[in-house]
Amino acid sequence: MLHFNVILFGSAIFTLCESAAIFEKVNKKCSIRDDECMQGIYRIMLQDIALNGVPELNLPRIDPLSLKNREFVALGMVKVTMKEGEAKGFKDCYATSYKSDFDNHRIAIDFVCDRFEIEGDYKIESTPALLALSGGIDIHGEGKGGVVVENVHLSFNFATEFKKLDDGEIHVLMKPEDSSYDFEVKGKVTVHADNVLVGKQEISSVVVNIFNENWKFLTNTFGKSVVDQAMELFFKESQVFFEKYPAKHWVTDDLSSYVS
């Protein structure tokens, strides 16, 4: 479920930055070399989208965020679907650091999210890979479940390029292939769920206890592979927003010398 949080949070960052209405609301521009100014803009914008959304882009508020039929595959073995639920905590995310090096085409942004909560009706199913490995033992179930993730630190290191597009304006574009990210849960992860079955045997308490007692190992071992899926889609979707609005909406500098 950290997959849900990262992809939604990442999409929010760039939807905000490329929304004309947000630029008007913030009513502020920065030099690309003024890191403190840019960090302030990100802080204002993230708060705004969490509470108000971006109507012009049909993006609803994201705190709380309604979840319906969101799914991911955990460890390549189990498919988890949040049939209907709610996520909270995006309004408590904030930029703690913004560092730009446009001579080398890099932007580094650090965020902290105090607490994410997801709660709702879930469905869990074994994948064919798990069934093959387990000799047909089927893990499944439908019920109520949730997760709390405390004190998440996200670090993005974006590779950028400046290009003049067909609109005649200079845009700051992202190069996903040269960008990177890291994350760390500095608090803890706690899950709860009912009605998890192996065959007909109820094993909810066993599964929940194993995860809650070993969440750090499981997150460190398998978390990145899950978040990688989110980041791949995040980079792809965010580029659409970068291409929509030119840099002049938020940058005071003449960027002509940076155009490749």
UniProtKB/TrEMBL annotation:
Keywords from the UniProt entry:
Signal
Single GO cellular component term: extracellular space
The record ties this protein, via InterPro entries, to: Haemolymph_juvenile_hormone-bd (IPR010562), To_sf (IPR038606)
Q: So which residues are the signal peptide here?
A: 1-19
Q: What is this protein called?
A: Uncharacterized protein
Which organism was this protein described from?
Mythimna separata (Oriental armyworm)
